[in-house]
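fwd from M.: "can u put these together and see what the complex looks like"

so here's what she sent:
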Amino acid sequence: MVPLFQSQENIAGKISIEPIQGKKVDHNGVKVELLGQIEMYFDRGNFYDFTSLVRELDVPGDIYEKKSYPFEFSTVEMPYETYNGANVRLRYVLKVTISRGYAGSIVEYQDFVVRNYSPLPSINNSIKMEVGIEDCLHIEFEYNKSKYHLKDVIIGKIYFLLVRIKLKNMDLEIRRRESTGSGANTHVETETLAKFELMDGAPVRGESIPIRLFLSPYELTPTYRNINNKFSVKYYLNLVLVDEEDRRYFKQQEITIYRLQEETS
Amino acid sequence: MMLDGMEDEDKWLAEGIAGIQHNAFYMHRALDANNLREVLKYSAQMLSELRTSKLSPHKYYELYMRAFDELKKLEMFFKDESRHGVSVVDLYELVQHAGNILPRLYLLCTVGSVYIKSKEAPAKDVLKDLVEMCLGVQHPIRGLFLRSYLAQVSRDKLPDIGSEYEGIHGFLHKKILPYEFPSLWHSDADTVMDAVEFVLQNFTEMNKLWVRLQLQGPGRLREKLEKERSELRDLVGKNLHVLSQIEGVDLEMYKDTVLPRVLEQIVNCKDELAQYYLMDCIIQVFPDEYHLQTLETLLSACPQLQPTVDIKTVLSQLMDRLSNYAVSSTDVLPEFLQVEAFAKLSSAIGRVIEAQVDMPIVGAISLYVSLLTFTLRVHPDRLDYVDQVLGACVKKLSGKPKLEDNRAKKQVVALLSAPLDKYNDIVMALMLSNYPRVMDHLDNETNKVMAIVIIQSIMKNNTCISTADQVEVLFELIKGLMKDLDGTAVDELDEEDFKEEQNSVARLLHMLYNDDPEEMLKIICTMKKNIMDGGSKRLPFTVPPLIFSALRLIRRLQGQDGDVAGEEVPATPKRIFQILNQTIEALSTVPTPELALRLYLQCAEAANDCDLEPVAYEFFTQAFVLYEEEVADSKAQVTAIHLIIGTLQRMNVFGVENRDTLTHKATGYSAKLLKKPDQCRAVYACSHLFWVDDQDGIKDGERVLLCLKRALRIASAAQQMSNVTRGSSGPVTLYVEILNKYLYFFEKGNPQITSAAIQGLLELITTEMQSDSAAPNTVSDAFFASTQRYIQFQKQKGGVMSEKYDSVKV
């Protein structure tokens, strides 16, 4: 179990140091740091701290018996959510350091998770589009919104304006696109999180196929845009039509995923 | 690959069943453990077997039924919240997480049915949701079975009048229908209308899928596909059946909603098989009363159907049902009149025929046959309707060459026979102005067939045709039998058939009758006119009945002799005899002298009864002339002379002179017959001409004896001839026959016939029989023996006769 926080919260606690019976700890000072780190896997595990706060807990001296240090970071800005991606990791950690001149310092870490909630978006237009291959296939599809929360349902429909190819089935995919780095060093990783069959068989002109996809079964995160200039995570709905020769026709649309504050009742 | 297609299919089916059983096993385990997650997992896997595209509808059905049985268990589980701990609302969402659409929708329908049963949401909202979601399966076979499952599980949950699901208020959980269907948020109470909407929508979608099945697959498989398709039709038709079972579907709703919607789908699907089947389905499943009240709507769809649809069968079915309905109760008849059923049907048929330009003529005619049948059953009193139908048929046929198609001909015969069968009265048909006009379009052969039908109808019903006008029309109808029509090759006719036909006509002539002599005479004249045109081949058949019909009239006139007062009355025996004379004369062209002779004799006898001596004499003269000039065959002569003798014997109208002339002729011809035995028999028959056993009949005993003696002479001459030519004398039959004549006259009191003469004859016969040359003959011996017994009997009987016989010894 990992503690869960959100931005602007106070992060307070108590650190206890207890030397082994009959020994003392000689130190050059005790401190606790709150770090927000981004770790790029392809960058040899280098960390970039985007947040770093320090509380000095003790001046240099000796500790003979168990000693506790209460600490508090109040209204900490934690704009980014904890994230474990394919190529990047964003994590929050409390780091306690007991500095020692000789034999190296003693360092302990405690991870915690941050989740940030968004209000209902004030503008949330539907996605509506007509696409097609000339004289072959024309469809019009509609998703009821462009922004979905994590437990949302995608409602929509696909309307067949022209069908001259023999379709076999149609799927709706949810794809996650994680891009890391910038410029020439950009790494993009795309992952299909959901493959949801919408239609079985070949429709004819004029058919309208309903869409109802519950997002809750899938492990989604909110959309992250350009986090600390290091990475982005975006979500796409990919409508895929497959014909009898297994050719695929698809159209990808970005949607925004957000975390909605769950109502407490 | 095609060769072992069947084998492969069996294999695939077996694999599918195995897959279902395998997953069902794990599903059962999960059910027993009340493990919802596992239940959902294995049931979805099980249902995935239904995703196959390899099976024909027939095999797919087998697979479906396996899954169906399992789904029932699943439904039981879903129903019991205590087993899985999830509310039905959440369950409804949970099953929608399945990635594959077909298992997902089967599960959704299953939970949906539980949802309705729980009454946590209005049935109509759930139903609407289910029927919409099923749009995702566009594969015809899979879609049809899925929707069929939906129909099945929802059937007992429709918000019908009086059902427990009627009038439930509530909200469908927003999780299920967020935003998209706002109208459902605050739904009104469930009504029958919602049930109807649901079934109609499912029906429409199923039909679309069914129709699509045809469009798939290459042409060479067309036949197989069509067969497979029709196996599925009942899945579609079932919806109509469900609609008809919904109690709340009253006439008004049927009229305003159900029928227009169903018809719209039928017309729009533009598929021959579907249109035919569904039209038929409508007619079969909904009550007749509804059909009657919505006739216009129903019929208006017909011309819009594909030109190849077998509308005639559909309409026939409809008319059949309606006419049964009409017959079922007299109360409903006013309804038929009120909605003008006939007019509507009639005009609909017209429009259908117009719309389907390619419809073969047989189709059009059979439609008219159906309409006619309907009319006859529903409006038997409306002869004008019948005529109208025939008129429409004439219109369709006119301007075209005579019918060639055998089936079409048969239909015309059916068309024309229907009124006859109904009314059992040809007179009705004779009043139909279009009846003969239809017949004009038949070829000669069919025309004859029809004529026979008409005649048979008359005979069967003993219909009397009683006016000359009707007779004229009738002859026009059966003219195929009455005369040679243009274009009939004479040698094509089968002799037997021809005889049969003409015999029918002959029988018919007897049915033309009126009690009023004036009218009857007119009828006879009409008959004569038509018969005379018939040509020499027909006359031998048709003249005799005409003659006898006329003779019958004569007898009747004779009976009311005193009443015939006016001079101007044309119907006098004299007049008729003139006609008869002319008629028989016509036979000479055939020629059939024997027949003519017989007819002359008949007429003579009738004239005798009318006291018309000159007429009778004339007929006899004609008979003798024929005998002299035409009857050459010796056998025919024998028959003829006996007829003449017989008739002449009964004549009492002649004066002495005429009588002498005729009897002289008769005896003369008798003696001139070729064979001795024939001569002998004719001569002794002539004896009767001189002894008529009436009160004032002629009794010329001497000439009787002369005849008998002459007969004896001829008989002995015959014996001698036989002796000479064969070496044995012939049988004594002739003698015994003469003996019997002797006995007859003896008993009648002819003084010239004495017991001595009889005795002599007896001895003569005995001698003849005992002579060496006589060959024993059982027939003549027996004859003689019984004659002797007769004499014996008379002797012993006592009384006057015994005394008379006393002197005769046997």
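replying to her w this: The two ends of chain A are 25 Å apart (CA to CA).
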